[in-house]
Specification:
Number of strands of chain B: 10
Number of helices of chain A: 9
Number of helices of chain B: 11
Strand content of chain A: under 5%
Strand order of the largest sheet of chain A: 1-2
Oligomer: heterodimer
Largest sheet of chain A: 2 strands, antiparallel
Distance between the termini of chain B: 56 Å
Largest sheet of chain B: 6 strands, mixed
Helix content of chain B: 25-40%
Radius of gyration of chain A: 23 Å
Chain lengths: 253, 271
């Protein structure tokens, strides 16, 4: 499941910037923290983050599915080509340090993906746009961001509808690879053409409603912020900066 | 192709915790023309989707002819049921309108001989070589309908077939459905347009909150102002005009109103 899921969790209720800051901290933290114990903590934090948003099950499933090819690649690459000593796994002997390295890298990737999916699932595009509008961000940028956040669920919904429409015209989705490839045209073309037509109409409608104007817009329902959340965002920034400082200090040492 | 009968027995369907159909039982005879009306969220579209195996009932049974829908896939149901979606854009993909209309018969292994006639019937013959996305949205809707008519289904299911169409296009849809009805095809049309319902349906089924709240002959229901008002509906223009002029025989279709009015000896009003 990718996209916003309505809810009342603390992450849903938090100011959108706070949830995004938490997700961002996980992302930057994953680049700064490289030791097994640090990565373990990072993954645990990502899991807690998703659990706080009450989207752990769906987000973790999707995160594992998305990062599975990377996990496989990492294990094959580092396990087969890594340094000695090696351990026998059935017919193949895998590098022990290589496996450890793959676990660390895979953990970092999974933490990033899980953090991103949790933010996607808990940050309402509408509330984010309102928060940005209240901060005076130009409409074009807020619209671009909101469109990006909502494009996946909308495309998924449209794809389902197209799939159903074509099945009702006798299109069979199973069968051989050739048959499946043939089915791609009737599914992909309406999806792309329909999306383009929709964007075209949407842009015209927005232009007609003065969206291109430069006047500052009024946020009708800006999400509430608090000093505590403000402080938390700064604290996260400081934490990430400290993690990088720690990384560089260790590299010098 | 002759029509097939459609049966729903004690059908229930839920979207998560929200029940969309609460034990619906309905029988539509082969060759019957039925309109399904009711407010948004009443369960009309869900009911029609059960007929093409796009949804599986949580309880109950759905059959089309001697086929148990629960045992079929949507592409198998396409052999019998032609479904026109509310949003035509979801099904158009070919490089030309002609190719798109041919797609269904080809998939079902049926003759393409009907295609030129169907294009003509929908007023699309001149535009047949154009890309479906190069014609306006209402015409795309007609392309979608033409694609389904060319499949020669024994049951036609249409979801809001006249939404967004102008008078001429609407008349084309009405004529096409009347011709299919004469040929014995079973028609089930979901519509908010009671004028359209009056033209094509012999029976009206009204849904509300996942249940069937009324099931009456169209002529009877469309003249029952109180019942329509209770359902939040208004009589179609033909019925309003017939009532205002006191026409006999309760005509509901335009042709019926014209026929009755043709028999009237009009008196010159004094100046």
């Amino acid at each position: 499941m990718i996209g916003y899921v309505d809810g009342t969790s603390p992450l849903h209720r938090a100011h959108p910037y706070t949830t995004l800051a938490l997700s961002g901290a996980l992302l930057f933290g994953a680049f700064a923290l490289t030791r097994p114990l640090e990565v373990g903590l990072l993954v645990l934090t990502a899991v807690l983050f998703a659990a706080t948003g009450r989207v752990l099950r769906s987000s973790a499933q999707t995160a594992l599915l998305l990062s599975l090819p990377i996990w496989i690649l990492l294990f094959v690459l580092h396990g087969l080509l890594g340094a000695e000593p090696r351990m026998a796994f059935g017919p193949v002997a895998l590098s022990v340090p290589g496996i450890a390295r793959a676990l660390v890298l895979g953990g970092r990737v999974t933490a990033i993906v899980l953090g991103f999916l949790t933010a996607l699932a808990t940050v309402s595009p509408h509330r984010l746009v309102e928060a940005m509008t209240a901060d005076g961000v130009p409409f074009g940028r807020t619209f671009l961001l909101a469109s990006t956040l909502t494009v996946l669920p909308r495309m998924r919904e449209r794809a389902t509808q197209i799939l159903e429409a074509q099945q009702c015209r006798g299109l069979r989705l199973g069968g051989s690879i050739v048959a499946r490839l043939r089915a791609l045209g009737p599914l992909a073309l309406p999806l792309v053409l329909g999306a383009l037509a929709e964007v075209d109409e949407q842009v015209l409608a927005l232009d007609a409603r003065g969206a291109a104007g430069s006047a500052r817009r009024t946020a009708l329902d800006p999400p509430p912020d608090s000093r505590a959340q403000h402080a938390l965002r700064w604290a996260l920034l400081a934490l990430v900066a400290a993690a990088y400082a720690w990384k560089f200090w260790r590299m010098r040492g | 192709m002759n029509g097939c009968d459609v049966r729903l027995e004690g059908v229930r369907y839920a979207y998560g915790a929200r029940e969309a159909l609460r034990g619906v039982s309905l029988r539509i005879g082969a060759g019957e023309q039925v309109a399904l009306v009711g407010p948004n969220g009443a369960g009309k579209t869900t009911l029609t989707r059960l007929l093409v195996a796009l949804r599986r009932p949580g309880a109950g049974r759905v059959t089309v002819g001697d086929w148990e829908v629960a045992h079929k896939r949507p592409d198998e149901m396409a052999q019998r049921v032609g479904y026109v979606f509310q949003h035509a854009d979801h099904q158009l993909f070919a490089r030309s309108i002609r190719d798109d209309v041919v797609f269904g018969p080809r998939r079902l292994g049926r003759s393409e001989a009907l295609v030129p006639g169907v294009l003509e019937e929908m007023g699309l013959a001149a535009a047949a070589g154009l890309h479906p996305y190069d014609v306006p949205a209402p015409l795309r809707k007609l392309v979608a309908l033409a694609g389904v008519l060319a499949m020669e289904p024994c049951v036609l299911v249409l979801d809001e077939p006249t939404a967004g169409l102008d008078r001429v296009q609407r008349d084309r849809v009405v004529s096409a459905l009347q011709r299919r009805a004469e040929a014995g095809v079973t028609v089930l049309a979901v519509s908010h347009d009671l004028g359209f319902v009056a033209e094509v349906a012999a029976r009206v089924v009204v849904m509300g909150d996942g249940r069937i709240v009324a099931d009456r002959p169209a002529r009877e229901l469309l003249y029952d102002r109180e019942a329509l008002a209770a359902l939040g509906l208004r009589p179609p223009p033909t019925v309003e005009i017939s009532g205002a002029l006191g026409l006999r025989g309760s005509p509901v279709r335009t042709t019926e109103v014209v026929a009755v009015m043709g028999g009237i000896r009009w008196k010159q009003m004094p100046e």
